[in-house]
Amino acid sequence: MESRLRAMKEDLAAPISSRRSSFMAWEAKKNTVLVSHGRPPWYGEDGQRLTDAFVIGIAGGSGSGKTHVARQIVSALGNIPSIVVLSQDSFYKRHTPEEIELAFASLFDFDHPDSIDMPLFAQCLSDLKQCKQTNVPVYSFAEHQRLDETKYLYGASVIIAEGIMALQDPALRSLYDLKIFVQCDSDLMLARRLSRDVKERGRDVEGILGQYLRYVKPSYDNFVHPTSAHADIIVPGMNNTVAIELITTHVKRQMEGRAHHFRQKLATPRIHLPAVAAKFEDFKLDVLKMTPQLQGIFTIIRDANTSKQDFIFFVDRLSTILVEHAMAHLPYEPATVMTPIGTLAHGSAVDAKNVCGVLIQRSGGALERGFRRVLNDVPVGSLLVQSDSSSGEPLMLQVKLPTYVRNRNTAKDTFVFLLDAQIGTGAAAFMAIRILLDHGVPQDHIIFVCFLVARDGGVLVIRRAFPGVKIVCAAVDDNMEEGWLDDPNSEALGRKFWLMQPGMGQIGDRYYL
């Protein structure tokens, strides 16, 4: 054994081949969301979560090929909406100065279960499984210490958790839908570990070998390999194409069974959802009073012949009026100020820890200028929600939320102005509200601001599912016209769509193009 170790040491002291570049590219993708074509709804028309994310746990010895197996699964899954790869390496505990000193001398045991913050690992994984956001710690191998920063993760339909102890803790195992153990020859695992630590973590070969014999090998024998008994499938560390095909076929079948389609119900709730039988007036929307000024603005922006310059000007004016009106839904407290002439004046001030805006792109962007005119010192984020080209269901394509919302500790104290041009079927609005709730924003802290609402459209379902959300709009249109988008590659009818009447047309296109 010692002679083989010496031979490996001499070989690995030489430069490593170009295969490192592809591995490094994958390393950069750990603890991140890999998005393909967008995530469809994970909830029902009552607003409640219907399914959890599908979680895969991958364990195996150091250098067994866990990351490579995860990469193969991601590649083979193809058009699965979004995938999170969660690495156990991020969950090493914080170290004392004495422990860091031992770590730099290769005398600290990083391969014992006690070195991993298992409760935090399980909590982050549980949050992602429940379709909530989480903030994963960041660990520096160069400094042998957990950093103060965290990595924000949200929106996965499939989660892959990988690490040597991924199957060791019962709390973790209870979260997995599929448990995998990667089996590999011990000599090959050592060779891979040497390659990685020398070139990627700046370690010397002598220290790596000493640490391997002192900690890594005993840990594998005592803690890691015994967890293979918990695995649903044992995958070879190389030449494992058949195993990967079996795994991905199973995952795809599971995802197909979790698809939800209810946009038709949102568009025509009185037909498909008999429980939504109340009068529109009973849903207590905050609709602006139709003054002659407001009527004049709507006449201009509804007119198809209005110039782009005039359209933008009056849309900005209307959005400013709307946001000013919506400000009444923020909490206020008494405030006293000193006037320029030295007299006290009694008034009020906003009593909210955090306030921000979130645009539903792209038509929601038409409200941004008006929003910033009223609230010029608050952060503004965005959500990109678009309709699937085949089903018409909403797809979550991108989430860029302010820091207030990304952290659950501050999200609970944050008031969010959710901005979109209109609520027709309400599919995008429904998804956007659900995203904010997943982040811990209370319903009564969400103020939805829009130009138009369809009287018998999705707003009825939204108000029933989320009664605490305030909806502020400038006008209500009575009708929605049903139509079909032609598929140029088929003689059959294409995807169904609904247009509000009289409406304002495609507001995003008119504003930006």
TrEMBL record:
EC number, UniProt record: 2.7.1.48
Signal peptide bounds: none
GO molecular function, one term: ATP binding
Keyword NAD carried by entry: no
CDD domains: PRTases_typeI (cd06223), UMPK (cd02023)
Domain Phosphoribosyltransferase: 291-512
Coiled coil ranges: none
GO biological processes: CTP salvage; UMP salvage
Top-level taxon: Eukaryota
Pathway the protein contributes to: Pyrimidine metabolism; UMP biosynthesis via salvage pathway; UMP from uridine: step 1/1; Pyrimidine metabolism; CTP biosynthesis via salvage pathway; CTP from cytidine: step 1/3
Catalysed reactions listed for this entry: uridine + ATP = UMP + ADP + H(+); cytidine + ATP = CMP + ADP + H(+)
Similarity comment: family membership: Belongs to the uridine kinase family.
NCBIfam families given in the database record: PRK05480.1, udk
Full protein name: Uridine kinase
Lineage: Eukaryota, Fungi, Dikarya, Basidiomycota, Agaricomycotina
